[in-house]
Structure formats: structure tokens, C-alpha cells
Amino acid sequence: DAGVTQSPTHLIKTRGQQVTLRCSPISGHKSVSWYQQVLGQGPQFIFQYYEKEERGRGNFPDRFSARQFPNYSSELNVNALLLGDSALYLCASSPGLQGYTEAFFGQGTRLTVV
Amino acid sequence: EDKVVQSPLSLVVHEGDTVTLNCSYEVTNFRSLLWYKQEKKAPTFLFMLTSSGIEKKSGRLSSILDKKELFSILNITATQTGDSAVYLCAAQGLTEKLTFGTGTRLTIIP
Question: What are the helix and strand counts (H, E) for chain B?
């Protein structure tokens, strides 16, 4: 079975540009979460989506947005990029909201803003 | 605000040593604590703990949760160079959101 897949793996953007990151969860998983990991820090929660609805949002500016599609894949969009947005962006999938379920992470997208 | 603190921040030991990594948490409506190993990019799931005092084991790794004192430990015995990584602790409340600590960077010297 395929794990969580993210694309692209690496990305270089210029300040002010917009970027879209993509994530496909593990087959059968309906919940997708996005995290930002700055070098030397633990991942920080950005969004969680379940059944195409936003179920949680972290402390990030409105430049960050996301959505989930009927096949449960997800996109994270970041507008008006800043140098400080340079980070590893991780996607995690889990079965859903019921019970105790562990989250599995993709390889991440390394975003560099210059 | 939910908070997870890990210690030590870094640890250097010789192959064969035993290490203990610490994680304390303050999370509203705590539900579970998770440990991950991060070598390059993707954090790899190790354990999920939901009940106090019940040790979970996987090979040379083991972990236990104390819900009264709000902490967890991860033990690695007979360490190997392949254990070198950043170990992340994360706490979960009622939602799917994970609150992570900064991580412990473990380096195993051959």
C-alpha cells in the first residue's frame, strides 16, 4: 500500500509569489492535516480537514489556505510568500475523527523562499 | 495554550548505551501521546500511548505514559548507529491536531 504522498518534494519561490502543495493520504484515510516545520523546531499545526470540511486551524495568517477534495487528497496554498515561510511542509493522514488514531506523515515538501 | 516540552534537546552516546528521552505536556482535554522518529524528512510513527502505566514495546524501544504527572519517556536500549535521529513527542487533545515538542536530537557514536 502506498503511504502518504506529497508533491513536489522541493520548491524554490520568490518573495511575493504564491505556491500550492499537494498531498494524497493513505487509501481509506479521510483526515488530512498540514504542518510547517522550521529548521530545528518541531512541526507546527496549520490545518486539519475531514470529509472536505475544515476541522481545525492553527495560528497562521490568512495567506495560508487549504482544501480537501472528494477523493480526500488535499492542497495547501500560501499567498504572498515571505522569507519566513521557508520550511518543510508535512502532510499527515489518519483514518478520521473516531477513536484513538495515529497520524502518518508524508516525506514533505521543502519550500525555499528567496 | 497547549504545550509540549522535550528534554534533553540533544544527546550524544556510544553504541550499546541505553538512553531515556523525556516529554512533558500540557494539553487541554488530553487524549493521547505519540512518539515519532525523524531521520531526514518524514516523521516515522513509533508509539501511541493513551493509558497511564502501560508500557509499549517494539524491539529495543519502549515507552510509558504518566497521566497524573503529565509526562512520557522513551527508552532505547543497546543503541545502534541507525538510532541516530530526531525523536519527536506530540500530544493530542479531542481533535486531530498534534502539538509537538522541539524534539531530541540523538547521535550514536560507533
Answer: 0, 11
